[in-house]
Amino acid sequence: MxxxxxxxxxxxxxxxxxxxxxxxxxxxxxMLSPQGHVATWNVGAQxxxxxxxxxxxxxHFSNFYTEEDRAAGEPERALxxxxxxxxxxxxxxxxxxxxxxxxANVVLDAxxxxxxEVIGFAKITRDMTEKREIQRALDQAREELFxxxxxxxxxxxxxxxxxxxxNLLMAVLGSLEILKKRIPEQPELMPLVENAIQGAQRGxxxxxxxxxxxxxxELAVKTIEIAALxxxxxxxxx
Length: 238
What we know:
The chain is α+β, with helices and mostly antiparallel strands.
């Protein structure tokens, strides 16, 4: 206890804070001047961003932004919002010393004096890349599950419709075949009957493809001669 008391007494408030900040290695915690220049640098900041304290002190914090964000004025916007509202928070891409990017959660708090004047900023940055990737994987899995469920529901509906429609077409085809046998003495009607039979057969083929879709069977892609199809329907269309 006596040792701890001597240890505590040997540290100023600022010294205690420095020990605490340097002990946190999962977060980049540092101070900025009112203009955005780096004023302090902790071990976590060095680990996360790759700059040593000697390399980064005095440099503008816009060095951590992507070229696109710098061109869009994002560093200045962050300072202005923190200056006016007291805090700025955002998730976005940030850049390490080696040029690699990481997805960061950034909090920027304004520091004011007794008169309310902004004398600097406290900045905390956390690497959220892994969490973001996990979330994206979860979102993708959720979307794939939703699509699978939707396709299953569509397949069930399609199968039911196709089955009923196929039964109707079979009845139509049966009636047309009987009609075909009973009108040989009226040859001018035969093309119409043939067209009707062909149309019903194409409809039956379509229902079979719909049933195959509902059962998740592989569908074969075939080429259709549009001209031949239209020729067969010419009399009907006229």
